[in-house]
Design a protein that fits this description.
single chain, 5 strands, alpha+beta, five-stranded antiparallel β-sheet, Bacterial Protein-export protein SecB
Length: about 150
């Protein structure tokens, strides 16, 4: 009878799990005219909460470096979500969590990064879309589970 049950996938809750911003050179950094270089790192994670419920996180770290490789600002956002997933084959569960759920979470993380950078007094950082399927495939090929990936 269990094989005849339909798969269930629902978003239970979306939330910011962690948000931090550092501007170590303030207020002098606001007088600099040089455009900082931006480095973006991205990681995904997931773990079961209870039967049929999973937490998935997408962590984005943006580091801006100015003259002499000094940090202009550093933003880290961990966007989390609780998902109810039932009647899905175990062999597809990890891909669903690391690709499907990550695709749902990333726009919220992107907005939080842009908002935090703007509130810190800088031009917004607009993150490009991410191909979580390609990231997942690359990690699988490398023999890794969840992990961090640098972008740019």
């Amino acid at each position: 009878m269990e094989q005849n049950e339909q798969p269930v996938f629902t978003i239970e809750k979306l939330y910011i799990k962690d948000l931090s911003i550092e501007v170590p050179g303030a207020p002098q950094v606001y007088l600099e005219r040089e455009t900082p270089s931006i480095n973006v790192e991205l990681s995904t994670g997931g773990n079961p909460l209870e039967e049929g419920f999973f937490e998935v996180t997408v962590t984005v770290t943006v580091t801006a470096k100015g003259a002499e490789d000094k940090t202009v600002f550093l933003v880290e956002v961990t966007q989390g979500g609780v998902f109810q997933i039932r009647n899905v084959p175990q062999e597809t569960m990890e891909a669903l969590l690391m690709v499907g759920c990550a695709n749902i979470l990333f726009p919220y993380a992107r907005e939080a990064v842009s908002d935090a950078v703007t509130r810190a007094g800088f031009q917004p950082v607009l993150l490009a879309p991410v191909n979580f399927e390609a990231m997942y495939a690359a990690r699988q090929q490398a023999g890794e589970g969840n992990g961090a990936t640098a972008i740019q």
